[in-house]
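Q: A small favour: would you put together sequence and structure tokens for a protein?
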Amino acid sequence: SLFEKDKLLFAFLLATRVMRQRKLLPSHEYDYLATGGASVGHSGNSLLPNPDPSWISAKAWAELGRLGSISEAFGTLQGHMALSKGGWRQALYDSPNPHLQPFPEPFNSSLSAFQRLLLLRVLRPDKFVPAVAEFVSASLGSKFTQPPPFDLAAAYAESSSSVPLLFVLSPGTDPTAALLSFAESRNMAGPGRFMVISMGQGQGPKAAAMLEDARSLGAWVLLQNCHLAPSWMSTLERQCEALSESSTDEGFRLWMSCMPSPAFPPSVLQNCVKMTNEPPAGLKHNMRRCLALEPLNDPAIWEEPAAVQEEPPPASRAKKGARGAPKGGAESNPQGETSASSTEPPKELVYSPQAKAVKRLLFGLVFIHACVQERRRFGPIGWNIPYGFDDGDLRISARQARMYVLNASGKDVPFAALQYAVGECNYGGRVTDDKDRRLLTTILSRIYRPELLQGETFQLTESGTYFVPKDGPLTAYESYVDQLPSEQAPEAFGLHANADISKDLTATEELLASLVATGESGGGGGAGEGSNSSVAAVVADILARLPADFDLEVAQQKFPVSYHQSMNQVLIQEMARYNRLTAVIRTSLMNLDKALQGLQVLSSELEGVLRALAIGRVPRLWQATSFPSLKPLAGYIKDLLARLDMLSTWYKKGQSSVFWISGFFFTPSFTTAVLQNYARKHQLPIDSIGFDFEMMKGDAASLEGSVPEGGGVYVQGLFMEGAAWDSEAGLMKESEPKALHAPAPIIWLRPQRLADIHPTPHYDCPVYRTTDRRGTLATTGHSTNFLMMVRLPSDKPQWHWILRGVCMLCSLTDD
């Protein structure tokens, strides 16, 4: 009943609980694994410099210092790495499987299996999840890392007329077909024996009546999508409580399906038999599943219109009576004898243009469906928002593709209409983010184009690993999919090889977040006097570093409201916003300090702050009035102090030549002010001007004291994700191996009349405030995350970088 992402977590919790029960796992080591040692008041051993920053980040080196302060086993690790840096790099950084590699001695012999996990968490977090699986397998056995297959019969055997069965749904799955097949095998299919109702508004009374009838008849009932009827869940709870074997036919079964929802009654959830059946992982398995779905599993869909065969030479004609032989084929005699020529292999089928188009469009659609499903596993670089594309999208798109070709009556295939129907209506109907819509239409346009119908095959990926095979029957396509590799490289989706690292890091973050959540529920350590003393040290440290609030009255006198200088108002507004944030932080920390000393009651609000600080997270109380940030506590405080210092320097020394665009609380006010200054200076309507972009060479120091000619501002502080910048050529380039982010160049935001902007070959690169990318529309009319599109010079087509998921970010998640 657990999702795949939680099965490993559950096994890991079992293994660690057994170890802690046997006194084999110190609490401080477990806490470090969950939080990264964020609650420890040590910053690490700062006396030892980082021996090799090319593979050990500043954050990882600081975490190693904290690790040495909490465990004697790592006390000499930093010194050992400084002396033998080559061995550590080879074992941890260069190896594709560092969790299977021996560490340099003496640490390979002295570290326990759990302590190896701690080291991998710091230096190779992308391989933490397979390392956890290896740890569980060594501790409990391999069967705990190999979940049992989905078995509907076994789940049914555990149920009864008073014990319902629940399918916990995940995006892209529908267990109805499997259940109908199982019902047929149990002789429970057909009217009156198997009743199905899809829940939603107004369906509650019908479902209740159906349950009453089925209880007396001994029938089966399936309540689909219970999460769509939250108001009826209390009635469902009463109906399930009323189920008893004495008043219900023993053949009765209540089946339910529901997405994870807080509205589903806990008592029903605890009492029922729970099942999950997630969609297969990987392009190959997803494509094979698509070919098994209706209508694609019908050979007639692939064979219409009927195929014809070329006239073979007379000497090799087969006999006419063979099944399926075309005209002019084999001839049979009355004795049923066959001539020797019948042993000749049949000629390959030559399909009509319509049949060829149908086959290639359908197989292209299979790849598209698997691609959009699998890209979700890569996190924000795959899709900004993980959409729940399902089998219904595939079915309607397949039927439409066939219909469009047959209705074309020999004319050109209407690719534009197909792209609109599939990309804007069917799959696109779920897409709410315009950048995701751009990606979806790009995926479609790379496959649904005239070149698809040319030649014997058509490449679906640049490497040619995936392609539309030679035209043939459904079985030929199934055979082709079966020989595809089980694991696919990111290149199959148009992504850079580094995307695999991003995917693995996302899986690690999810596992650690779940680990922390179970600890908050009582599954982990960290509570008690030791934790409170660490939090008290953190509180005192933050309060000591937090500067005084800005004096807005004095600032307004120095930077008064000016028609020709909108930047003055931007500075005052930014100071006011940061004053509100620092007031909340300062007040909550002062009250928490009093509560920890027993001078004040620890309210639920302060308890939330305490828990967040104990695990190194930003409290929700602060987030409510904060700028968008996904950084941990230490990185957040460092970032906040840098932002406050930027405003303080602006107030003391005036505007900088190069603005740190990432430091603004509300960045749209800054960009609007730049346009406003230009519009007022040249007496132009502000809606008739926009930004042109020029990438500058050199760093901020080289531009110090300079003013952009013709207006505008220089900005810095952005990071590129999915690509890098070639400063010599002045063009975008591919990312370096294992470098997930690269610094963007200093950009000149140059206001110009829209009619005067003539862009050169470029990529329209979206700029986001955080790595999460997704955002909501605020009351100001601006997105809470997306900032603008920047035109980056490129010698590659737009679609290449769109498939790469390239963007620029104001803030990273690291310290």
The chain has a mean pLDDT of 86. The two ends are 37 Å apart (CA to CA).
